[in-house]
Amino acid sequence: MSLAGDYDLVVFDLDGVVYLIDEPIPGAAEAIGRLRADGTRVAYATNNASRRAPDVAGLLTGMGVPAAPDEVLTSAGAACAVLADRLPAGAPVLVVGAEALRTDVRDAGLKPVEAFEDDPAAVVQGYSPDVGWRILAEAALAVRAGALWVATNTDRTLPSPRGPLPGNGSLVSVLRTALDREPDLVVGKPQPGLFRTAASRVQSSRPLTVGDRLDTDIEGAVAAGMDSLLVLTGVSGPAELLAAPPERRPTYVTADLSGLFGDAEAARIPVRATEIGGWRLDGDGRLNGAGDPVDALRLLCGSAWRGEPVGAASAGARELLDRWGVSRAA
């Protein structure tokens, strides 16, 4: 059975897994289409609050990934649902973020505002490339005066074809510094709510989460009690995986989404064997041989997660660890 064949729902992160900003990742559309053809249900859970669920579904469909709005869960939608539960209808909410977040606030029965003088009951903060000092200043005044501060997510970066760019977490840090406090509530990943909602919507009994970030996607899946797959097409790389604490360790790792259709045991981590795919761990724990880099990574996860030093005993292993930016033991 393939890796995906053991699950009845696959929940995908988007940025870094399916696309980078607005550019589809090669092979992603084909992989998701194959899952659908095999009868596996799919859902999408994103921390990016700059698009509404129908807009995300339209973007995906335009990339050749058919998606319905009810298959998309966004941190913006989740944040507005929380605010609607906590505030009276029509309450003013100061929006730090994109127009999509303002629309979600309005759809939740609340009133989006943009100034401290509007006496906001809450501040909701989500990613937008247009967030600037003026709106952050209004938000700081509102929170200091007692407004509830809700962040859609705290991702420090978001992936792009040019490399990682500042994410909503970097913008949240501006207010955190100015106010010397944390948000009252962070709704998106790594909180497990988006994943649990996706599973409950289709009554999934065995969901799999696929993500590119250990600190959001994988940690959120672990918190939700779900198996997870880390794909190496986005933010988290081999060095971060080798250093991952238990709450950020995925069930599987593959280079990209094509790994969904390979043997599950060929992607599972940690590996208890000492030799796989042309690589082996010598008696002193050093990596030796040559082969698929993902096999080497899986092999090293087993020893690194046991607290053993990572070393190299061959030229190929040394080159690989250097490329990953992993410090080699003497």
UniProtKB/TrEMBL annotation:
Superkingdom of source: Bacteria
A single Gene Ontology molecular function, please?
A: phosphatase activity
**Classification via InterPro entries:** HAD-like_sf, HAD-SF_hydro_IIA, HAD_sf
Pfam family of the protein (one)? Hydrolase_like
Gene Ontology terms: cellular component? cytoplasm
**What NCBIfam families does the entry give?**
HAD-SF-IIA (TIGR01460)
Q: What is this protein called?
A: Acid sugar phosphatase
